[in-house]
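Colleagues,

Please find the record for the two-part complex below.
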Amino acid sequence: MAKRRNTDEVVFEAKDLHIHAVRDDGSHLPIVKGVDFKVRRGEVVALIGESGSGKTTISLSALGYCKPGLKFAGGEALLLGEDVTSMTTEELRPLRGEQVAYLAQSAAATFNPSILINEQVTEAPILHGTKTKEEADAKALELYQALELPDPENIGSRYPHQVSGGQLQRLMAAMALCGEPDLLVLDEPTTALDVTTQIEVLKAFKTVIKQEGAAAIYVTHDLAVVAQIADHIVVLYDGEIKEAGPTEIIINNPQHPYTQRLMAAVRPMPEAGQGDVTSDAHMRKSPALEAKNISAGYGSVGGGAPKVKVLEDVNVSIERGKTVGIIGESGCGKSTLARVFAGLLPPSNGDLLLDGERLEPALADRSRDRLRKVQFVYQMADTALNPRHRIKDILGRPVEFYSDKSGAAKRERVNELLDMVELPRQFADRLPHELSGGQKQRVNLARALAADPEVVLCDEVTSALDTIVGANVIELLKTLRRDTGVSFVFISHDLSTVSSFADEIVVLYAGRVAEQGPTDTVLSPPYHPYTRLLISSVPETRIGWLEKTIETKEAMSGISGAVDLDAIGCPFFERCPMAIVGTCDVKKPPRREESPGHIIECHREISELLGG
Amino acid sequence: MKQNDHYVAPYDENVSFDELPDAAPSARFRLSVTGWIGAVIVTFWVFIAVFGPALAPYGENELPFPDDYSEFQLPRAGAWLGTDVADLDVMSRMMYGAGRTMGISFVATTLAYLIGVVLGIGAAVSSPRVDMVMSRINDAFLSLPTIMLGLVVVAAVGSSIPVLMVTAGVIYASVIFRLSRALGQEIMVMDFVEAARVRGEGRWWIIRREIWPNAAMPLMTDFGLRLIYVILFISSLSFLGLGVQPPQADWGSMVRENLGALQYGASIIPVIAPALAIATLTVGINLIVDDVSAHSGGKLSKRL
C-alpha cells in the first residue's frame, strides 16, 4: 500500500496519440488520429463511441499493446510518466499486472475453466514476485469482500463454472486488482450481462475502484452506464475526440452534434403510454400465430416430459400486424419459445395455431407455404449470413424458393427488398463482410421479408448493435410493420427496446409467464414483483441513479441466484421481496386477470401489487 | 487539453455521422519468401514430371554405355548423375520416375478426398445414429498402421499401379473423413445453416450451397499436406519392394535398388539423388501449404 495516494497524480496520459493500421502493401490507414487525455489517480475516465471509433484500440495503448496489424504511429502514451509505446515486450511485462491491468468483456473467456478461481486471481502478483502467496490470498479475500461476493472465504476454492455470470465478472475485477495496479482498463465489462446483474456488478466496480484508489479507463458504448460510473467522459468518433469533459456536463449539456446524437439515441425509459398502438387495418378474426399451453424442453422425451424443462404452460397470441415483445433474463426460455414457433424444437405439450389452424410442431412436417409464413431473424447477422454468398443470393434464394420467381422478376424483388430495408441497390453484389454491422442486420431482416411472411420472429436483433444503429433498426421495424402488416415477435432482454415497439408484452421468468398484457398495462401498476424489478433495473442516463436504485428493496432482493426450473411453487420466490413463506414456495401461483388480457401470476392480491 | 476543461471539437453542422465501417480490411493472399522457394521447387518437379520422359537423354531402360559393364559409375560426360546398379542412367530414370511417383500420389490423394469428403460431410449432416456408426467404423480403420495395412493388401492382391492408387486412396480416406466431418459439424451449427433449414431447404442443397463453399478452402489447404504423406507412403512401399515394380522407375524403388552401392562403397549418387528428390518435393509443398494455412487461418469461426 506504499506506492500510491498522491491524489492529483496523473496515472495515464495520451499525448497526440496516433495509431495506424498497416495494409499489406505497406500503406497506412489511420485508426486513432491524435488523441489527448489524462487519467488522474482515483478517477474513472470513460471512452465512449460506437464500434469502429477506436475506443478499444486507445484503451489497449495504456498497456503498450496494439492489436495485430496495428502500430503506434506517433505521439505518446505515458503510464506513470513513462512512454509505453516505445517499450519492448520484455520491458512491458513487469508493468502489465503491476501497474496496469485489463478487464475484458467476457469473464467466461478470461477464466481457465479447469483451474480454481483463487489460483487464477492471485496468479499475477505471485508470478511477478510482488506478493507472497499469503499476501496475495489475503488481498484476494479483501477484494472478494469489497466486491460483495457471497461466501468470500470459500468462493476462491470453486471452479469458474460453479459461480454465476455476474459473480464471475466481479471475480475478474478481483483478478485485475489483486496486483494493486495503478491503472485499470475495463473494456465493456457489463455489456453482456442482464440488467439486474449489471446493477450489482456496476456497484461493486464503483466501490472497489474508489476503495483501492486506482485510476480506471472504462470503455463502453452505453451512456447510461457511463453516467453511473465515470468522472470524466471522452467521446470518440472515427479515431478523434469529439467532446470531452466532466460527466455532468457531457450528460446534461452536450455541445457537439455527435454527442447530442448519441444522447438522442438513448432509449427512453419504459413507461406506460409508450407502447406503439398500431392501427387495426390488418386485423382479421383469428390471430396470425397462437401458442396454446406450450411446454417444451431439451433432452429425451420419456413419458411426455423432457429431461430439462425450459417452458411451462405458455400462452401467447400474436394478432395480425401487431408486435408481441417477449422479455426476461438470460435462461428464462425466451429464445426457446422462438424456436418452438419456428419448428426447430417441437413442444412436449400444447398446440401451435397458424391462422387458427393447427400448425405442425416439427419443421420437417410443415408445408412450404406454412414455412413461408413464419420467418426467423437471428441475433448475430455475422453468423446468420453465409460469408461466401453475395447479398443478391442471400435475398434471392427465399424469393425463388417460396415464389418460384427467377431471372428478372427475382432481381426486381431483391431490389425491392433492399429498398425496403433502406440499403442501396448496389449492395446486391457485395459479400456480407463488406457491410457494416447495422447493414448486415438489415440484410438479415430483408431475408425474412423476402418470404413474404405473416409472422417474423426477431431474436435479440438489436442487442449486438451500437445504440444509434440499434435505434435505426427499431425505426425500420416500425416502418416495415406499418407498410407490410407483418406481425412481429420481438425477443429481448432489454425492456426499454421492447416497450417502445411492442403492442403487447410477455414477461417470462424461469420458463413461465409472470405477467402478460398490453404494453401500457404491463408497464403501469399493478406489477408482478418481477416486472417491477426489471423496470427498476433499466439504467437511466442520470447521474446518481445507481446509488438511488440500489437502496430500493427490489434491487436488494434482485441479486440473482440460479433459477431452478423444476422448483415447486413460484419460481421467483427466492428473489421476491413480497414472497409469502409457506405459500409462494409450495404452491403454484394463481393466474389473476387484472383487466381484459392483462394476466399476472402471483399469490398476492391485485390490490397488494398496486402498492409500493 | 486540460482535464477539467470542457473540450468540444470543432464541427460542421452539415456533416452527418454515418455508421463506421467494420474495421476488417481483408488481406490479399501473398506468398512469403519461403513460400516462393517452395513454389519454385514444386514447379520444377512438376515440370520434370510432365516433360521428363520427353527430355530424358536415355530411355527408362536404355543403357547409356552399352559397351561398359561396370555398375555405379561416377558422373561423367553423357551420364551426369552416373549410372546405377543395372548400369542405367540415374538422371534419365529419375526423370521417368518423377511422373510416376507424383502421378500415383496425386491420383491416390484425389481418390482419398473423394471418398473422405463425401462420407465425412455426409456423416456430419446425418442423424446422430448414422454419424455414430460411420465414425466408429472409421475409428477402427484409423487404428490400423498405414504401412502394415498397405503391405498386407499389396502382398495379397499383387502390386500394380492401380492397386497402389486404390490402396493409398482408401487408407488415407479415413483421415480425410475425420477432417471433413469435423469441418462439416462446425459449419452445421452456424446460424446460416439453421436459417436454411428453417426455410425448408433439403439436405443436399444445404451441403452444396451452405457447407461446401465454406469447407472447400480449408480442405484444399489440407490437400497439399496430405499429398506429402501419400508421396512418402508410396515411396515407402516402393522402398520395401511392394510398390512400383522394376523395370519401371520410381523414386522410392530407385533408392532400394541401389542400396547395394552403400555396401560396396561405390558412388552413392543413385541412392542419394532420388531420396533428395522426395525430400525437396515434400518440403517444397510444405512451404506453400504453410503460407496458405497462415492466410486462411485456423478455425472457421475466426474467419467469419
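Confidence is low (pLDDT under 50) at residues 298-304 of chain B.

Comments are welcome before we finalize the supplementary table.
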